[in-house]
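Can you give me the bound-state structure? Components:
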Amino acid sequence: MRIITSPAAMKAWAGEQRSKGHTVALVPTMGFFHEGHLALMRMAAAKAEKVVVSLFVNPIQFGPGEDLEQYPVDLDRDETLARHQGVSALFIPKPEEMYPRGFQTRISVAELSRHLCGADRPGHFNGVTTVVCKLFHIVCPDFAVFGEKDFQQLAVIKRMVADLNMDVKILAHPIVREPDGLAMSSRNSYLGPDERSQALCLSRSIARARELYADGVRDTGRLADEVRQIIEPVTGARIQYISFVDRTTLEPVSQADDNTRLVLAVTIGGRVRLIDNGRLAKGG
Ligand code: AMP
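Here's the bound-state model for the whole set.
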């Protein structure tokens, strides 16, 4: 596995692979790998001959007062884990090479970025689309793999790719969970033992909404009340948003159907912001 740190070297290596006729898949990450990241890498390896994983804690997608400075890092461990998933190149650029002096461009997917996490984190998605667009230009992958864990991010990126005629196929991987249901996240490392059990209210509330949907409940006002009743009594849990949305447009719906997704953001212990989501219909 190659470790590549400069965008120019990354571009050259990826170009070489393509000229040899290899297909290339990219998995963008911020590192501190867990099984969710590794599953994305395996999906990429099953799809393309060469897998590039980018590891970049992208400063422009963090707002003031967010956790950029504390974001967990363990490069040695990440390197070992990536090596075991059939990754061909790990791209670890420096912020000053991604955003040299004078950098001023932003990609904005206006509507899809406005609500949900976009409302709580102004500018976040513009930071994400800008870095992903840069990574696509550096690596020119045939495929790029993203997790459904960040459901709004996935919708925003699919929109950007369609709107800008980008030549990359976006693959989505289902959410990978801990055995007790907690969606895996690098930010779970911020949770103390009590907070770790409080955090289960997210996946429990999704399971409850699915149960009610299976029993025929379609009114999303009623479903949202039931979700609130699970989260609100949990000490330290504060709802940022609960929304039942169409899986493509992310527009809120009043009557749920098989295309409806429950998306949630909850802060635990006043500091750790967790997101989760799930389809109401069985199978995803
Ligand atoms: P991050 O390093 O948190 O930016 O995540 C990198 C990629 O991994 C994104 O496409 C995420 O959606 C995906 N990802 C993170 N956690 C999970 C998970 N638990 N299950 C599936 N994909 C995930």
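A couple of observations. The chain has two domains: 2-173, 186-278. The two ends are 33 Å apart (CA to CA).
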